[in-house]
Write a structure and sequence with these properties.
Layout: H1 4-17, H2 23-42, H3 48-60, E1 73-78, E2 81-86, H4 88-91, H5 96-113, E3 131-132, H6 133-144, H7 149-160, H8 164-168, E4 171-174, E5 178-181, E6 183-188, E7 191-195, H9 203-207, E8 209-213, H10 218-229, H11 232-235, H12 241-246, H13 248-260, H14 285-302, H15 307-317, H16 323-330, E9 338-339, E10 355-356, H17 374-379, H18 383-394, H19 399-412, H20 437-451, H21 464-474, H22 482-502, H23 521-529
Helix pairs in contact: 1-3, 6-7, 7-10, 7-13, 7-14, 14-15, 14-16, 15-16, 18-19, 21-23
C-alpha cells in the first residue's frame, strides 16, 4: 500500500496533467515523473517494487478518463468494452530494465517463501517455528468475541479463508450484477455458504452462494459475522473495493499484523536459526487465506483425502477457477511446519458439496441475538446455583461448559415423573401455580433428555408455539407475552443452542426442526407438562 504522501502527489500530478492540451506536454510531464522515480531507485531510496506500487496510484487517476482533446485519448478495452482513455495511463509505467528487475525480485521472493535461500540452496527448516493449527484456531475464536469489528474480521478470515474484502465489505459493486449484498449462512456444523465472492466475471457467478468447510463451528462464525455487520463503521464502508482498501481495511491490516503478523509470516521471514527477520515479516490478512488453505489440507488428510483430492476441495472452497491459483496459496507455507490439525471436523467426501451451489439456499429469517452476558445470566440464578456456577468456572471450565453443567445439575435434581400419594383425605383440587418461561423451557429440555431416547424426531426445540401451548394448560388458556419469551431467548439462546446441538439438532435454536411436530403441539405440551416442576 502506497503512502499517503504518494497518493497526494499522484492527485496533484493528475490535476496538472489533465489541463495540458498537447501530446508533447503530456509526454514531458510523464517523463519527468518517471525520471524522478528512477533517480530515487539509483540512489537506493526506493526499490523497484515500491516504485511499481507508487506508479499504480498515479495511473489510477487516468483510468477511464477521456480528455476533451481527442488527440490525448486512445482506444482501450476495459471490462470487455471498448472505450477512450487518456494516453497518460499507459505512459506511466516502468521501463524494460525495471520490469526485468521487478520480475527477478518477485521470483526471488517466491523462492524464499517456498523454502530456498538466496543462492538457491534448500533452507534448513530444523529451527523454524512450527505453526500450531489448533492454537491459531483458538486465537481466531477469541477474536470473534471482540467488540472491535477489525478484530472480529481477523478471526473470520482465518477460519473461513475469505478474502479481506469479501468478509470485510457488507456489499460490493459488480459491473454486471450491480450492488451485491454479502451474506453468510450455516449449511452444516462445519460448512458455511457465502454470497459475495469477488473476482467473478458473470452476474450468475457473482450472485451465487459458494459452500466451504470452516475450521470452527459454522454457527459461531456466522453469529460473529452478523455482529460485525451491525457496527456503524462497518455499515458505512464503501461498495468500492479500492476505497475499502484505503479506509477500514487499514484497521484490519494493523490488527491482523499485531495478532498474527509473526506467527503467520512465511518462511522468508525467518533465518536459518529460526529468528524472525523483521523486514521480511509478511503476516497480513491475506495470509489468513493461505493459512486456511494449508490448515484445511491437514484436516482433509485426517479425513482420508489424498493430495489430488485435497487440492480439488480447496480449489472449490476458495472459489478458484483453476488449481494453479490454489497451489499459490498452498505453497505459501511449508506443509511439514503445519502441526496439530483439529481431528473433530468431518468433511464430506462428495465434491459437489463444495464450491458454487447449484440451488440458492434458503436463508433463515431470525431475530438478532444479543451477545451472551454472564453477569445477566447469574442475576437470574438462585444463590446456590450462582455459587455452583462460580465453582465450575474456577475449575477451569469455559463459560459454555460451566453453564451446561449447571443446567444438567439442576435437571438431575428434579423428579422425572410424579406419583400421586394415596391418602384417606379427600383430594382437594388446587388452582395450578403459574409457571415462568424459564421453568417451561427447562421442562422442555428435561423432556428432550429423558423421554426421547436419542430419537431426533421426538426432540422439541423451545419456541413461542410450544411454550404457549404449555402455558395455556397451566394458566387456564392464557398465553405468555411474546416479549417475555423473546427476552428469555436473548438471555439463554447460546446455552440452549449448545444443548440442542449436543442432542443432535444441527441447526440448534435456528432452523425449522419443529415443523415435524406441526399439528401435534397440544399433544406434546401435555407430555412435557410431566417434566415441569409442580406448583
Amino acid at each position: 500500500m502506497a503512502s499517503k504522501q504518494n497518493k497526494a502527489d499522484a492527485q496533484a500530478f493528475y490535476n496538472r496533467v489533465i489541463t495540458l492540451q498537447s501530446k508533447t506536454e503530456v509526454h514531458q510531464a510523464v517523463n519527468e515523473l518517471l525520471d524522478g522515480f528512477k533517480e530515487r531507485e539509483i540512489a537506493g531510496e526506493l526499490k523497484v517494487g515500491t516504485i511499481s506500487g507508487n506508479l499504480t496510484d498515479y495511473k489510477q487517476h487516468f483510468k477511464k478518463k477521456e480528455h476533451e482533446n481527442p488527440e490525448l485519448n486512445e482506444p482501450v478495452m476495459i471490462d470487455g468494452k471498448s472505450c477512450l482513455q487518456h494516453i497518460a495511463y499507459n505512459l506511466i509505467d516502468l521501463d524494460k530494465e525495471q520490469k526485468a528487475k521487478l520480475k527477478a525480485e518477485r521470483a526471488k521472493s517466491s523462492q524464499k517463501k517456498q523454502g530456498f535461500e538466496d543462492d538457491g540452496e534448500l533452507k534448513d527448516t530444523t529451527n523454524i517455528p512450527k505453526t500450531d493449527i489448533l492454537d491459531i484456531i483458538k486465537q481466531s475464536l477469541e477474536c470473534l468475541t471482540s467488540e472491535n469489528p477489525a478484530t472480529i474480521a481477523c478471526g473470520v478470515i482465518n477460519l473461513t479463508g475469505l478474502r479481506a474484502a469479501e468478509q470485510g465489505m457488507p456489499r460490493h459493486e459488480h459491473k454486471e450484477a450491480g450492488i451485491i449484498e454479502h451474506k453468510m449462512i450455516v449449511l452444516d456444523e462445519y460448512v458455511i455458504g457465502f454470497c459475495g465472492v469477488v473476482k467473478k466475471r458473470g452476474a450468475d457467478d457473482a450472485l451465487a452462494f459458494y459452500a466451504r468447510p470452516t475450521l470452527a463451528p459454522a454457527q459461531l462464525i456466522v453469529d460473529a459475522q452478523e455482529k460485525y455487520l451491525q457496527f456503524t463503521k462497518v455499515q458505512d464502508i464503501s461498495t468500492d473495493t479500492q476505497k475499502y482498501k484505503e479506509t477500514f481495511y487499514q484497521n484490519v491490516n494493523n490488527e491482523y499484523k499485531k495478532r498474527f503478523g509473526k506467527t503467520l509470516s512465511t518462511l522468508k521471514a525467518f533465518d536459518s536459526e529460526g529468528n524472525l527477520i523483521e523486514k521480511e515479516v509478511d503476516g497480513t490478512p491475506h495470509k489468513g487465506r493461505s493459512f486456511y488453505a494449508c490448515a484445511l489440507r491437514a484436516v482433509l488428510k485426517l479425513n482420508g483425502f489424498g493430495n489430488a483430492a485435497c487440492i480439488k476441495v480447496i480449489q472449490k472452497s476458495l472459489a478458484h477457477d483453476n488449481e494453479g491459483e490454489t497451489m499459490k496459496y498452498l505453497g505459501s507455507f511449508d506443509e511439514s511446519l503445519f502441526i496439530n490439525p483439529p481431528n473433530y471436523i468431518e468433511v464430506s467426501t462428495n465434491l459437489n458439496d463444495f464450491g458454487k451451489m447449484i440451488n440458492t439456499p434458503v436463508i433463515p429469517v431470525k431475530e438478532a441475538v444479543k451477545s451472551f452476558n454472564l453477569e445477566n445470566f447469574q442475576d437470574g440464578l438462585e444463590a446456590e446455583e450462582s455459587m455452583q456456577l462460580v465453582k465450575f468456572l474456577r475449575s477451569g471450565m469455559s463459560q459454555t461448559q460451566a453453564i451446561l453443567e449447571l443446567f444438567k445439575m439442576v435437571r438431575n435434581q428434579k423428579p422425572a415423573t410424579k406419583t400421586a400419594e394415596k391418602t384417606d383425605t379427600p383430594e382437594v383440587k388446587e388452582k395450578p401455580r403459574s409457571v415462568s418461561v424459564k421453568e417451561i423451557v427447562e421442562g422442555i429440555m428435561h423432556y428432550n433428555r429423558q423421554a426421547t431416547d436419542g430419537d431426533i424426531k421426538k426432540i422439541v426445540v423451545p419456541s413461542n408455539g410450544i411454550i404457549n401451548e404449555i402455558a395455556k394448560l397451566r394458566h387456564h388458556g392464557k398465553t405468555i407475552a411474546p416479549l417475555t419469551i423473546k427476552n428469555h431467548f436473548l438471555k439463554f439462546n447460546d446455552v440452549l443452542d449448545e444443548e440442542l446441538k449436543d442432542l443432535g439438532i444441527v441447526e440448534g435454536m435456528g432452523g425449522s426442526h419443529n415443523n415435524i411436530h406441526r399439528g401435534k403441539l397440544g399433544e406434546l405440551a401435555a407430555k412435557i407438562m410431566e417434566y415441569i416442576e409442580p406448583g
